[in-house]
Amino acid sequence: MIVKNNYWQWAQWLTFFVSLLVVVLMFNDSFQFISALPVGIGQRIFWDIIIFSAPMIFLIIPGIWRNICPVGYLSLVLTNLKVNLDDKPYNHSRKLLVIGFIVLVLLIPLRHIYYTSIIEVAVLLTTGLIALLSGFIYKSKSGWCNGLCPLIHVEKLYGIKPLKSFNSIYCKTCSQCISPCLDLTKNDSLSNLKEKSMFDRVLFGGFPGLIWGWFQVENHSGLIEFKTIIQTYQIPLSSMLITFVLFELFRLIFNNKTSFSLELVFSFSAISLYYWYRLPQIIEAVYPYSMEVQILRLIILGFLVWWYFIRANKQIAWLTLD
Ligand code: SF4
Q1: Binding pocket residue ranges, ligand 1, CB within 6 Å
Q2: What is the pLDDT of residue 4?
Q3: What are phi and psi of 188, to 5 degrees?
Q4: Higher confidence at residue 184 or residue 50?
Q5: More confident of the two residues 234 and 256
Q6: pLDDT at position 257, please?
Q7: Residue 181 DSSP SS3
Q8: Average of pLDDT values for 85-102?
Q9: Helices 198-214 and 259-286: crossing angle, nearest 10°?
Q10: Rounded Cα distance, 273 and 265, in Å
């Protein structure tokens, strides 16, 4: 678990310190202890740059992200210091993944209700703490990176035909902390993930609906009542259910023979919907010319069509071992 490659190490420290800086800036958004900084700059960097570019990174180079993610780095600090319990969660690894997935699905709509920077900072710090604890309890990457991390599901959804595999910097030799390992498993016909579990089918089938539904809901302001929470979850969760049912219907109609193509279509729909709706929100805030925004939308859509359906189907693993 010790990283020896200097370039990767620099990249890890860089992402880690950038993350800390963004957290401080988000704190400042609420408390204005550095009055020279524009209000909201931390949140803008976090949502409009980091979160906005995350799906593209997961799509193209998930392996790089798996090596330099700051939360993953934090989760392995205690392992690198040899201070951990090294529990192998073979029996409950699926439970950790399911918990992470449920947290993800619950957190996404909640952002329409709680969107002040101090609450977001609290969520980020809690996430860091849980990552640290899971790294203390479980062996190597099985607690967080291949377990509780909510983003592993987004990586699975988008990273189904990445550009290339990268060397795993944490696992020079495999200590078999988990099986199957999501980092190493290829999405090819030999893969033990070839038969998607019901859980994976909910992810692939449901996400286009969840994303579409999320963009149909306005941010809530004012008193938070039970009714508000129901309204916030209603459309995203029902549209998630609808696209999941569609996914299952297609699977039955095509007799499960084209399952990878079906996953490609649903993965493509999810990421396309995200950028289709999110791009204008970001660009128009600084450059309010709708014609250019439409052109940019079409360029991104064209790129995604090429990436998913025209480019050769290279179903490779995110990471490899030396
Ligand atoms: S390569 Fe081995 S040690 Fe590393 S995360 Fe995968 S199973 Fe665990």
Answers
A1: 140-142, 146, 168, 171, 174-178, 181, 183-184
A2: 63
A3: -100, -170
A4: 50
A5: 234
A6: 63
A7: coil
A8: 82
A9: 30
A10: 12
Pocket mutation for ligand 1, best pick of 69, 175, 319 (most atoms within 8 Å of C-beta): 175
**pLDDT(111) > 70:** yes
Name the region of 176 (left: φ>0; alpha: ψ -120 to 50; beta: rest): left
167 and 8 Cβ atoms separated by less than 8 Å: no
Helix (H) or strand (E) holding 267: helix 259-286
Tokens 């609906």 belong to: 209
**pLDDT higher than 70, residue 188:** no
pLDDT of 267: 97
Tokens representing residue 34 in the block: 């550095």
Partners of residue 320 on adjacent β-strands: 167
Supply the pLDDT for residue 285. Answer: 72
Identify the H or E element spanning 320: strand 319-320
Which pair of structure tokens corresponds to residue 97?
Answer: 């993944």
CA dist 201 and 259 (Å) reads: 10
The amino acid sitting at 115 is Y
User: Which residue stretches of the chain are H helix?
Assistant: 6-31, 41-43, 52-60, 62-68, 70-75, 77-80, 93-110, 117-137, 151-158, 198-214, 226-253, 259-286, 290-305
Bridge partner residues of 87 (DSSP): 138
Judged against a pLDDT cut of 80, whether residue 186 lies above it is answered with no
* Among 84, 142, 174, 193, residue to substitute to test ligand 1 (most atoms within 8 Å of Cβ): 174
Task: Give the lowest-confidence range in 88-92, 178-182, 267-271, 286-290.
Answer: 88-92
